[in-house]
Structures are given as structure tokens and as C-alpha cells.
Amino acid sequence: MAGAGGGGNDVQWCFSQVKGAIDDDVAEADIISTVEFNHSGELLATGDKGGRVVIFQQELESKNQPQCRGEYNVYSTFQSHEPEFDYLKSLEIEEKINKIRWLPQKNAAQFLLSTNDKTIKLWKISERDKRPEGYNLKEEDGRYRDPTTVTTLRVPVFQPMDLMVEASPRRVFSNAHTYHINSISVNSDCETYLSADDLRINLWNLEITDRSFNIVDIKPANMEELTEVITAAEFHPNQCNTFVYSSSKGTIRLCDMRASALCDQHSKLFEEPEDPSNRSFFSEIISSISDVKFSHSGRYMMTRDYLSVKIWDLNMESRPVETYQVHEYLRSKLCSLYENDCIFDKFECCWNGNDSVVMTGSYNNFFRMFDRGYRQDVTLEASRESSKPRSVLKPRKVCTGGKRKKDEISVDSLDFNKKILHTAWHPQDNIIAVATTNNLYIFQDKL
Amino acid sequence: MINTMECAVDAQSLISISLRKIHNSRTQRGGIKLHKNLLVSYVLRNARQVYMNEKYAEIYRMQQYEEVMTVCNEIQELNPLDLAEDCEEQSGDCCGNDGVSEPASLCCALLPVSHLTAVQSAHIQAPSACSAPLSLQSDEVCKETEPSFYRSCCAEAYPVSNCDFSPVNNNLHCNKTTVLDLDTHVVTTVENGYLHQDCCASFQQCCQGAQSPAKKRKVDFEYYISDIEEVPDFTPCKRAKFEDCSYANSEHLDTSNISNLISIFGSGFSGLVSRQADFEQAMNGQFCSKQALASLGAWTRAIVAF
Fold this sequence. Notes:
The complex is a heterodimer. Chain A is an all-beta fold. A four-stranded antiparallel beta sheet of chain A has the order 1-32-31-30, with no helix packed on it. A four-stranded antiparallel beta sheet of chain A has the order 2-3-4-5, with no helix packed on it. A four-stranded antiparallel beta sheet of chain A has the order 8-9-10-11, with no helix packed on it. The longest helix of chain A is centred in the C-terminal third of the chain and has 6 residues. Chain A is globular, with a radius of gyration of 24 Å. The N terminus of chain A is likely disordered. The longest helix of chain B has 45 residues. Chain B is elongated and about 75 Å long. Chain B has twelve helices and four strands; from the N terminus they run αααααααβββαααααβ. By secondary structure, chain B is α+β, with helices and mostly antiparallel strands. Classes of the chains: A mainly beta, B alpha+beta. Chain A: One of its GO terms (molecular function) is protein phosphatase regulator activity.
């Protein structure tokens, strides 16, 4: 059978696990809004619209089945953000988690940043598997003993206990953003991070919460002259002075913080001229970039707009080096997609560990992988129907016109309520996490 | 040029859908989303552009037809015989694109006049004072108009017999016909196919009327939306109503609600419009020329001097 793409022409993807409710009735709070592996891939975090963060941990490979990778099981669940009310502006602030970013691990504890529209929080996730026992002045349940009853002394000792994972907020970074935060990115120096909203980007020190530096401000003097907003921002993986931000106009600006304190002037501007023959009512919407991600190497970056994924070489600003059409068949449906608001969906994209394959989501619970080396692409589906353990995923095909072949699905049959906006790829292995509306699917390559 | 072929929904529907989205964003949880509303405003702008283009084309066609009908009828009453023979040969060309086959008579002298040959005339020197203050404004609006129409609709006073600034037809024989409109006191010289209005008292109003929406648009998105509402009520500046160039009269239109919708997210997005400024200026210029052309219908009691 022809290769399914994704990391070589002989990779086959298998279902591994699915997390979340089976109900068709989706509670709004359960809608997954972000997915992120940590730097080792051992931990997988998800955020949802209800402000909760759920962290899964990969089990160690079992000795019985050395060929099988460990499963991901719930490690910790906590409420990261609560709904708030801005009394001054009479605005409700949603608790939805927009982004989660892990910090590189420095000690036994894990740290992650989670953000909603206005506030970023640094969470410490730590394990406790022992507890002290044998206090002289306290009973085991914590009540204080009457000192007069103490007749002997003993040294308290640590006794093993059931593993307890604690999440505690270590820092709260608030009141720095007037507009809605869309991105956070940890710097490679592990000391600073940036947060971006529609018009501004701020630089924070992870230790300092009462102060942040504004490094990009595109707010015009007269708001009536507003023509574009910031849609995503990310630090370079290796160069701590470099970051990029994308705009609603389809441009990406690379900035160097050494050049000046304010990076309003970009160092590089990446922009592809629009094809005039494709001009429509919705040209501006579909050219708006919804995600930008550096490759692990730092040489390339990838952008996602509504219909395509583009790979840019940082050394060439004039046009992308590769363009992949995700669902070009939607171009003739833009009117309907505008009416039902689907055209505003913000799809994310991700690289695999060695930057050879990129992945992004689509509708009907389809997701796409593009193998850059072999020039192959594949469409797969995340569905309960094909969720037998270790069953191989069958490539899917959308019929764009003419006679529909067997096993193809026609464009008009696509379910636009089932969308995959968030995907993540394990940093080392071929393990992917794909979020449908309220379920998290984990797929692995067949060993 | 926006390709509207693929869109099943027409521009007007898109406009109402977009306004509805903006309205709904007021009640969405989490506050108004700047990014989404910005994108919606782009669609609004594009739809409006297409809608206006279609409207202008339609209005222009209607104007041409009506002018031909009106003027030809009236001139025929005045001078049914004198001009018929002069204009017969142009009848096919100048009586509009709709294949209206009215007797040419004087309509040829009045309409898009690239084909006009006509007659020597004594040129009536127009007082320059009235044109001077207008020229700058009009210039701005009309500078991108079609040359064959309206080369210097905003002409400052120029030497009587100077045909030099007629840029295209330099080698042609300089032919002039001058007409004084007793209603509007507009003196118009038709010269080598170029139409000039020397004394533009009412012309100023026309130009201002056409121009002010453009200026308004640059200032405030609210007016931008009000224009959309205006268009269905637009009445071409017909002869009797020349002074009431209704393009500028938007007060009677119920735009307050829609203006409120736009103002809720506190920005005008007229920056979007300013990017189209050139285009809209051109359109306004053209429209201005159409306005002036519409004024030709005001020649109820025009005097034609040969």
C-alpha cells in the first residue's frame, strides 16, 4: 500500500488513545483550546474553554511490551483561570485558556505558562510521594498534642505515600494587555518570555510580575486608521534576541531586540504578493495568518492562513520556499464559510521533531500532514469509528467535483462543526496529539 | 478587481450579513474581538465597493438614457430643424450605449462628446472668479476622470481661444460651442470634444457633494456605512434639482443605528478607506463628471450660440 506520509513514505499512523467525553453533546467548557507537549515529550498539556488545564504523563515503556510506547494518563488537573469581570469597561474576561507553553525543566518540578485573554500565570507542577511522620507535638491528623503528655522524643521521618501531583500558581502576570492575548512564547534564555495581544507585544521576566516592557506597538494614533492586528508571535528557538510576529494582513515581521528597545521597525518583512486573479470579497480574511512556528532548527518558520501552510526560509523575505494547500476546495465555499463564521477559525500548525514533516488541522475532523522531503501529503481523520487500539488510520480523500469515488467524501458532506484547530507533535518520537472539539486523540506510528 | 463570480451571495447581502456580525459581536462573551471585526470590516468595504460600482454603472446608464430623452425632446421643441442636419451623422455614436435611437439633434452637443465636431462659436469669456475658488476642490476630486469626458471640469479661467491644454487632440481643429444655462448660470464650452464648465457655481455644489462623502469616509467609518444606506436613495442630479445634489444629503437617512454599531468598537477603520482613496477619488471624479453631465439636463432654456 502506498505510504501514508508523515516522516517518510512508509509511516503508518495508528490510533493509540482518546481522552474526553463520548457524548455528542459537547459542554462549552470542555472545548479544548490548546495542546502542547513539554520539551521531553513526557508530558502533554491541554487547556479548555472552562479555564482548566489537564496534564497527561506518558507511562514508562513496560517491560512486557518493549515495542509499545507508553500510554498517556492523567497526571494533573487544575483550574488555571476563572472568569473575571472588568468593572471599569463592563467587560467579562473569558477564562478560556488561549495558550500553554512549557518552560525547560531545571529541577524536579515542571513549570508552564498558561494564559487567557488578559492574564498569564506561571504554574509549578510538582510531585509529592513522601510525607513526614512522627512529629512530637502533632498527632498524625495534625491536631496538636498536649505538651504535658509528651514523654519521649523521636525524630520525624519521611514515609512513602501515594503520589500526589500539586499545581500551584507561582506568578501572576496581569494588567499589561488592553487587547486580547493571542500568544505567549518563552525565550531560549529561560529568563524572559513575550506575550502578544492584537496590537502590542510585551516582554516579561519570569521572576517579575509587576512590570513588563513593551517591545512592539502597532496601535495607530487614530484608531480609525487601523488596518492590521498582530495574530501570533514567537521567540526564535536559539537566538534569544530574535522574535517574529504575524499580522492579519499575511505578513510576518522578524525583529531583533538588539537593534532598539522598541521593535516597531522590523529587521525583516516576509510577505508574498497576492495573486490578483484570486481576489474576492474575502481575500483579506483568508490571508490573515493564524499561527506562526519556528522550525526546531531555527532556519525556517511556518505560517498558517485559512487555506494553506507556508514554509519560509528566514534568509528569504520575498516569498515562502514551500506552500501546501490544506483544503483548496473550500475556496469556492468562502461565502458560506463567512456566513457560518467558519472562515474566522484559527488553525494552528506544528513541526515534527526533525522538521521534515508539518501538520495542521481541517474540517470534518480531518488533519493533514505534509512531508517536505518526499513531497507527499496525507489526510487522516480523528474519529471514534476508527479508534480501535493500534488500528491503522486510513488516508481520507475529499472529492472536489465530478464523480465521487468509493470512500471519498464530497465537499458538501463535510461537517464544518467538527474542526481540528489544535495539534501537537512529540519533540522526538512519532506521536501526535490531535484535539477535536472536546476530545484529545493520540496517534503513534506503527512500530 | 474583486471576482464576484464565485460568490453566491450578492454584495448587498454581504453588507447586511457583515453588519449583523458586527452587531452580534456586542453581546459576545469576552468583549468585542478586534481582529474579527477588522476582518468583517474588510468584507464590508469590498462588498460596498462592488455594490457602488454596480450602482454607478447602472445610474450612469440610466442618466445617459434619460438625458438623451429629456434633452432631445426639449431641444427639438426649441430648434427642431437647425441642428438636426449637423448632428445626424453622430446620432449613432453619441446617444448612449443603450442603443437609444433618438434623433440626435442637440443631444450630441451635450453628451459624452468625443465625437463632436460641430461648429465654430464665439466664445463667451466666463468670469474667472467663480471658478477659481472651486478649482482646487474640484481638482482633487476630478483629476482622475476620464480624459475624453471631462478634462478640466475644474478648469481655472483659461484664455479664450486657447486650445493648448486640450492634451489629446492637439492637432485637431479647435471647435467650440458655448452654452449658457439660464437656470444655473453655468456657461459651458464644448471644445474639441472636451467639456468645460467655466462658471461653476452649481458645479461647486456638485463637486462638494460628491467629494464630501469621500472626505467623510476618511474621517469617520460611520459615514462610510451611511453611504451604503445612501445609495439606494440616490437620485441623480436632474435639472430641476441640480442644487439639491442629493449625494451629500444624508441626514434624512436612518444611519444612526448603524453608526452606533460601528462606533461600539471605538474605531472607524477609515484607514481601510484611505487605501482606496485613489480609487474612490477616481470614482468620485467620474461621478462628479456624471453629476455635471446630469446638469446638462438643466438646459431647459439653454441658449446655443454659434
